[in-house]
Amino acid sequence: MGEIALSTWTDWVANRQNRDMLTYTPEAEAFRVEVKAWLTENLPKGWFDEGFEMSHEERKKFNLEWPSKLFAGGWICATWPKEYGGKGLTTLEGVVLAEEFANAKAPMRADFFGDTLVGPTLLQWGTEEQKKEFLPQILSGKMRWCQGFSEPNSGSDLASLKTTAVLDGDEWVINGQKVWTTQGHHADYCFLLTRTDANSPKHAGISYLLVPMRQPGVEVRGIVQPDGTAEFCEVFFTNARCSKDNVVGGINNGWKVANSTLAFERGMSATTGYRRFEEEYRIMLAAAKENGAIEEDSIRQRLMKYYTKYQILRYNGLRSLGATLEGKKDMGVIALGATNKMFWTEMHKEAMELALDIFGAHSMLIDNGPKESGWPGAQRDKRRDGYPVSPMMSAFFFSRSETIWGGTSQIQRNIVGERVLGLPKEPKGADEK
Ligand SMILES: Cc1cc2nc3c(=O)[nH]c(=O)nc-3n(C[C@H](O)[C@H](O)[C@H](O)COP(=O)(O)OP(=O)(O)OC[C@H]3O[C@@H](n4cnc5c(N)ncnc54)[C@H](O)[C@@H]3O)c2cc1C
């Protein structure tokens, strides 16, 4: 490709992004104006200016103060019903809200596990008392959560879990071990899967408990990752306790409840999920142009492949939104959820391999490589301790985990094969037939 054709191509790609903005109903568009006005008023001065950057100290202060501003504005979990502290937004208003926060590059969440996983699960399955007790604390950001599902020998085969809970008067007594518990060391509460009936088939003897983490029977040990952070933990329960009333969705009904939580985890923001990839693409393209990597055919082809794939992701997001608005819950929706999870995580692994080739081996050194705040490793780097790696390596390492958490790619393929395409099922244990 000659020089003129090359720059025409890259400029076309760069200019193409974000041009075809969607518009929704007049109500949703009126709501967009409201959100924009709030963001303009509440984000730090200069936020929207070209090249705006915060110092490390300013960023820290902002991260501390922003959740209370979000709470005061009513934007955390704004789609929840008003009676539980939400704004009762419609699906489309929720989408508009996510889009405007994404456009402004403003963080929208306080605590992922509370806002996105256990909160919606409680809305669906919780008793009135549980909703009244826990939802306001999730909304205010006062209560932080972790997810206690995986165990050393129960990950993909989650239903084989062995952590037990036994009723003792008004309390459950819990014994066992969880692993890969993200944010376990910061959490106040854990939504925990436990075996409450050892004699039933394995899916039928599980209960979903809400367990306080700060008690003598709970020991949390951080697992240090190659990038020096210890985001996830091992959690040991030795006669830990929680109230008898903290079982969600009924005793021995935890499998169904857990599947609701997993569905929330696997879902991505319908029309904004692709944005982070677009930003990474932009940073990679600019670097490739600057350092000459773009001259290589294979780099151009891989960049184009990445661009094409995140566009597919974007359109699949719109399909998901369409299905949600039409209230569809059929096999096509299950297929879309499972294929999206495997598609974006596998795409992103390839993209980070491409990024390494663009930025080059020296980007593995701590002061080199991408530094833009939109780069996934850039924020993680600030939290490093003991074993620092560059933002490039941090992003690269983390991309390797994406095809694992929330259900591995192989498990997603099993879901599509068995549940959607109706292919023969894997052989199961005797108690599952
Ligand atoms: C970054 C990160 C954060 C996480 N956070 C949490 C958390 O907060 N809370 C929590 O509970 N868990 C968490 N996890 C754990 C995660 O859910 C599990 O790692 C995942 O479910 C896979 O389980 P496993 O690691 O035990 O692997 P295994 O289930 O042992 O799988 C090993 C390999 O075998 C394959 N495999 C297994 N079964 C099948 C099958 N039937 N067919 C085909 N292939 C199969 C898998 O795809 C995988 O490649 C986290 C994981 C990561 C990486």
Ordered list of secondary-structure elements with their pairings:
Elements: H1 3-16, H2 26-42, H3 56-73, H4 91-104, H5 112-125, H6 128-139, E1 145-148, E2 164-168, E3 171-182, E4 189-195, E5 206-212, E6 218-223, E7 232-243, E8 247-248, H7 254-266, H8 275-291, H9 297-325, H10 331-359, H11 376-382, H12 391-402, H13 409-420
Parallel strand pairs: 1-4
Antiparallel strand pairs: 2-3, 3-7, 4-5, 5-8, 6-7
Helix pairs in contact: 2-4, 5-6, 5-7, 8-9, 8-10, 9-10, 10-12, 10-13, 11-12
Bound molecules: flavin-adenine dinucleotide.
Flavin-adenine dinucleotide binds next to strand 1, strand 3 and helix 13.
Name the helix and strand elements from N-terminus to C-terminus, one letter apiece. HHHHHHEEEEEEEEHHHHHHH
Q: What's the CATH topology name of the largest domain?
A: Butyryl-CoA Dehydrogenase, subunit A, domain 3
Residue fraction in strands: 5-15%
Cofactors, ions and other ligands in the entry: flavin-adenine dinucleotide
- Structurally, the number of domains stands at 3
Radius of gyration: 23 Å
Widest sheet: strand ordering? 1-4-5-8
User: CATH superfamily assignment of the largest domain?
Assistant: Butyryl-CoA Dehydrogenase, subunit A, domain 3
CATH class of the largest domain: Mainly Alpha
H/I helix tally: 13
Name the quaternary structure.
single chain
What composes the largest sheet? Answer: 4 strands, mixed
Overall geometry: globular
Low-confidence stretches: 1-6
Key features?
globular; Butyryl-Coa Dehydrogenase, subunit A, domain 1; binds flavin-adenine dinucleotide; Butyryl-CoA Dehydrogenase, subunit A, domain 2; Butyryl-CoA Dehydrogenase, subunit A, domain 3; 13 helices; 4-stranded antiparallel beta sheet; alpha+beta; 433 residues; 4-stranded mixed beta sheet; 3 domains; 48% helix; 13% strand; single chain
